[in-house]
Amino acid sequence: MFGLNSRFIRLLSAGFGREGVKILAAAAISGLLQAVCLVIINQAGEETDAESLNFRLFALFVVCIAAFALANKYAFAHTVTRAGQIIYDTQLRIADKLRRSDLRSFERLDRTQVYKNLLEHTDVLFEAARYLTVTLSSAVMLAASFAYVAMLSPMALILCAIIIGASIVIYQGTQKKINQKLSQTKEREGRFLRHLNNLVDGFKEVKINSAKGRDLYENYLRAGSMDARAAKIDSEILAINNYIFAQSFFMFLIAAIVFVLPQMGDKDSTNLHNIITVVLFTLGPLGQVVALLPNIYKAEFALTEIEALEKKLEEADDTKETAAESPLPGEDFQRIMLRGVSFRYTTNGNGGQGFHLGPLDLDLNRGEILFIVGGNGSGKSTLLKLITGLYYPTAGTIFMDGVDVDQTSYAHYRDCFTIIFSDFHLFDRLYGLGEVNEGLVRELIETMELTGQTDFKEGSFTNINLSSGQKRRLAMICTYIENKPIFVFDEVAADLDPQFRRYFYEEFLPRLKAMGRTVVAVSHDDRFFHLADRVVKMEYGEMVDISRTEHRQ
Predict the structure, then answer these.
(1) Average pLDDT in the 92-115 region?
(2) Which of 179, 149, 156, 157 is nearest to 2 (CA)?
(3) β-strands 542-548, 534-539: how paired?
(4) Using an 8 Å Cβ cutoff, are 479 and 430 in contact?
(5) What are the φ and ψ backbone dihedral angles of 389, each rounded to 5 degrees?
(6) Around Cβ 336, how many Cβ atoms within 10 Å?
(7) With the C-alpha atoms ordered 172, 173, 179, 181, is the resulting torsion angle positive or negative?
(8) H-type helices in 101-153, by residue range?
(9) 338 — phi, psi (to 5°)?
(10) Would you say 1 and 297 are in contact if contact means Cβ atoms under 8 Å apart?
């Protein structure tokens, strides 16, 4: 089923490099030394003298055991080191590709699969790599041991080969069914986890709607759990049957040597005892060799899943064409212009069409405050993602001081913005800022009345488990410290109490304007519209009204 052309084997070969040859040699030597120890034990048994200890064989045994331990330690330690490096490189590579993905592709990703690839599947690869070293050592030990059996009795070797060969065929046939059941189990467990995510992420909605909660639990969570459980139990029963078969096979092999081999002409009792000793010693290694294919199968499956995810992420990489030097004016810009910009969501993989925004024209001038208003679903958040370069227009162009913003410059363009989304994530550390003025951060914490709730030490906030309003105030501190040319706020004032809502509009935004910063804010607070230089109204994806208000100092 799998050979040297296995993707998993190729992965290990590339990752281990020349070190892999040393690991293979050490594993082979350890297996050979195991067999030598077995021969020494048999030889000592034949030469046992109750009056004295056979120092020659005992010393040889001690030397072989020590050499075996050293070779085994080298093989395993270096396997673990190299395999661990491959796994962590894989995890970092996926994480790097994640951060390079465009937002729309990222939004379509199944997060459960991402976590499974980063954690569960990489663990499978690690275990399989380690098991491969064990198996190689065991295979060499088996080869040497059965060569010894051939020396003792050629008929014994033939008998063992027939029984072991037939048993492996039966075992692998059952194992193939187990693998199929395991695939079904993984698929059904994945479906169950998606429903569980709905419960966790939508807890408030489920809590307030008992019918929704019952339906989700009874018809999806419970049914999904039962399906996953049934597949899991079926695979476990098959695995138990295989285990029982393996144990019965071992007993049958011993019985064949005891009862059948003498009938085949080999009646030497000493040989018989030695052969039984060899077989007993090889049962464990034989089981490890037989179990190799299931482990390789799991590794191949895991690698398939990882490669599929990486392919998706590579296709979603929107940084490939980014120019080393930005062609845009950046922080010194004077005007951003959206001309004929539109955006359309696709609702399914067949290209079905969803919400459409635009086409629209919009200017954003340096040092002004722009409010965007409109009802839910009007396109405000989508417009923000277009303005900030997180979404790419389906049609139309964005200009910064007359320079087209395209794939070579989008990453540079996005660097001009700092944003607080309505569903923002609050980081515990100010990533990307290097050295931070801790005194300024603490001063802002005091201004935002968060003293006693959190502090800033050693580059991170001591506590981010805050109320919704407190989190927004802390997020405002983070954006202020970032101090980008353009500040974007998506309904930030929505969860602020009246005192800080007034502070946000009457002090925080004017302070940013006085610093020469540009502000774009989604707002429903018409009491403060007079503080904006312009107010843009969105409705059903169209810019239906633009009103200008006089700026008031």
Answers:
(1) 85
(2) 179
(3) antiparallel
(4) no
(5) 85, 10
(6) 22
(7) negative
(8) 103-108, 111-115, 122-152
(9) -100, 125
(10) yes
Q: Which two tokens stand for residue 515?
A: 């610093």
Identify the residue whose tokens are 């993602």: 385
pLDDT-above-70 percentage for the chain: 94
pTM value is 0.73
Residue that the structure tokens 């690991």 belong to: 23
Least-confidence region, from 111-125, 231-245, 349-363: 349-363
Q: Exposed, middle or buried: residue 121 (CB in 10 Å: 0-12, 13-18, 19+)?
A: buried
The answer to whether 400 and 413 are in contact (CB under 8 A) is yes
Band (266; pLDDT cuts 50, 70, 90): low
Tokens (6 digits) for 159? 């008998």
Residue 17 corresponds to which amino acid?
G
Tokens of 376: 């839910």
Distance between terminal CA atoms of the chain?
A: 77
Closest CA to 524 of 492, 553, 550, 548: 492
Cα Rg, the chain, nearest whole Å: 34
Residue with tokens 């502070």: 503
| Separation of alpha carbons 292 and 297, rounded Å | 9
The CATH architecture annotation of domain 1-152+301-320 reads Up-down Bundle (1.20)
Residue 486 and residue 416: Cα distance in Å, rounded? Answer: 6
For 330-548, CATH number? Answer: 3.40.50.300
Residue 418 CA to residue 479 CA, distance in Å, equals 6
Token pair of 351, please?
A: 């290209």
CA dihedral 179, 180, 186, 187 (to 10 degrees): 160
Q: Provide the 3-class DSSP secondary structure of residue 222.
A: helix
- How many residues make up the chain in this entry? 553
Rounded Cα–Cα distance for residues 450 and 399 (Å): 40
Look-up: residue for tokens 């499978």? 124
pLDDT in tens, 76-90: 888 888 888 888 888
Contact 548, 532 (CB under 8 A): no
The amino acid occupying position 124 is V
- For the record, the structure tokens of 173 come out as 């046939």
545 touches 360 (CB < 8 A): no
Structure tokens at 133: 């070293």
Question: Residue 541: left if φ>0, alpha if ψ -120 to 50, beta else—which one?
Answer: left
What sign results for the dihedral spanned by CA atoms 197, 198, 204, 208?
negative
- 213 vs 515: CA distance, rounded Å: 50
CA 217 to CA 215: how far, in whole Å?
Answer: 5
